[in-house]
Amino acid sequence: MSTDSVRAPLSSSSFPTTVAAEAIETIRLHGAETFPYECCGALIAVDGRIVEAFRLDNTTAGGAARRFRIGPDGYRQAEANARARGGTLVGFYHSHPNEPARPSAYDLEHAWPNFTYVIISVRAGTPGDITAWHLRDDRSGFDEGELIWPTGS
Amino acid sequence: MAHRVLIPTPLRPYTSQQETVDAEGGTVGEVLSSLTTQFTDLRRHLYADDGKLRHFVNVYVNDDDIRYLERDATKLKPGDVISIVPSVAGGAPGPAAPADRSTELSNAEIRRYSRHLILPEVGIDGQRRIKGGRVLCVGAGGLGSPAALYLAAAGIGTLGIIDFDNVDESNLQRQILHGTPDVGRSKLQSARDRLTAINPEVHVETYETRLTSANALELFKDYDVILDGTDNFATRYLVNDACVLLKKPNAYGSIFRFEGQASVFATVGGPCYRCLYPEPPPPGLVPSCAEGGVLGVLPGVIGTIQATESLKLILGAGSTLVGRLLLYDAWTMKFRELKLRRDPACPVCGDHPSIKGLIDYEEFCGVRPAAATAAAGPGVPETTVEELKARVDARAPFFLLDVREPHEFQISRIAGSTLIPLGQLPSRLSELPSASGQEIIIHCKSGVRSAKAVALLKENGIEAKNLKGGILAWIDKVDPTLAKY
Question: 20 to 30 Å CA-CA from A9: which of A35, B69, B142, B387?
Fold first, then answer.
């Protein structure tokens, strides 16, 4: 089993950077299943490592091809799940169907601080790049985070 | 008065990692204001530049979202706990829905829709999206009428209507697309005339056909929203399943007597009609509007709610009824709301769907004509209105029992009949001439309730015959002077 650093700029010590392979697999599968619509879910960390990607319903009313929304019920569900695992809710993931894994203006407008936003690009139904982002404290933009997961088998 | 405020994880760095904070105030607005005075960094994350709460910030007082209370002005009682609960949203670059169908607005359109355009939530972009929008109304009846009228007035680009009926006098009390001169005309022609008169810019597409499993997917595929204005369970399940399969939102409404329901089904991730009602009721249990009656303005309320939801779905804005079932009681004038969730075990929208194509919905609902007769009980002895007339003329002795309700009896009755409503029949069997051996003939409006009465009497050892077609057949074939309802 080798460890592959996917992107390495701007690591922030307070954000988790390592992810369990199962969580990455969940995100990839979820993105492929919902294509051409966006998938979304919560990221749960234990001891600073993201151990679970927890699928949530995309409740957007704005056309799921380009939008996702996790309502207050979904948020509470995510928190409860994190608690049940003895972990913390550290962020959310979503897919960009046929678009790069970079945050959009809409992502910025709706972002919460201190969360890790993981984006997966899914092109023609095939999962691609996975990136992580953190909102700047003054809401002026996102900084890209580091995300490391084991690859190979 | 100090209140406890629960701070969500992402905002705790601004409250020195405190999960709960006490803040002063008598209303939600005052508490939030004192909170952001104590912790100034919270402000930019909770409030947008215009000073309003960001729309992905949800504030609850105990278990209630303040949007459903009095928002900022919601008054607080001692001990009330305020929670800030995030919604999380985002998405790919670009507008929510591809805007290729929306078009520029002419000056005439700008004048016409000015009251929309000055709403920042709609504006020019929103009106263009409405103009590019396509809504299909299934049915041009009670619900379809107000929905189509308002959608046409709102400037919807394409309005499709499916119906196969003609306008009947008894429709006019609620189906406001049609007027007295339209009686006997096709509902689609009448609808087209009325809608074009309201707004000639709207492209009205009419489909004079019954919606079936064979044509539903083809009819729905080019529309953005399907507006369910159907009046029976088989078509309702058909509309639902077709919407789920095509991933088209279903602006749902239904009405009965004084009560209505509305929701939005079949959005991606949201619940569908089957999550709410996995199985149809047994045939005959829930009477139709023709049997149970309906207050005329009721579909006006529910149909306009469906039109509202359709517009918001097209605008991609506002809070729709996804995940909520709105219940309305016109008689007590009360609105209630139930939370709905997608059922992961739902046979059509669940995680492992067993229904992957459209099925036979009449069979599913048990309403195939043969099945309906069987449900009424095989071998219920029947007689026809002609035979009944012959008996009356021959002055043959028999007992004619009417099992309708007193208000129906008041509208019209067959001379010489005795009224015992079906519900009272079990406790009033002693009033029947069973001992005398006199033959009993039972009727109702159309023959359904009286068939049940015949079966009920048989269980009690009393023989009787059902009058086929009920008083309606009597009026049609024997005595047209009686009032038909």
Answer: A35
Read out DSSP for B50-79?
Answer: TSSBPTTEEEEETTEEGGGTTGGG-B--TT
Query: Given this model, what pLDDT does residue B368 score?
Result: 60
The residue from B243, B272, B289, B365 that is catalytic is B289
Cβ atoms within 10 Å of B385's Cβ, excluding its own:
22
Contact A64 B95 (CB under 8 A): no
CA distance B46 to B23: 15
Min Cα–Cα distance to chain B from A145, Å: 16
The verdict on a CB contact (< 8 Å) between A61 and B320 is yes
- B205 neighbors B161 (Cβ within 8 angstroms): yes
The whole-angstrom separation of Cα B203 and Cα B131 is 10
Question: For the sheet containing B81-86, what is the strand order?
Answer: B20-24, B2-6, B81-86, B57-61, B64-65
What's the pLDDT tens digit per position in B69-116?
A: 888 899 999 999 999 999 898 888 766 654 444 467 888 999 999 999
Residue B125, pLDDT score: 86
**Spatial distance between the Cα atoms of B407 and B401, rounded to a whole number of angstroms:** 16
> pLDDT of B376-414, one tens digit each?
445 689 999 999 999 889 888 889 999 998 888 988 999
Nearest CA in chain A to B314: A62
Q: Which residues contact A135 (CB under 8 A, 6 or more apart)?
A: A108, A111, A112, A113, A114, A115, A117, A142
Q: What is the ipTM of this complex?
A: 0.83
CA distance B240 to A9: 48
Q: What is the DSSP letter of B322?
A: B
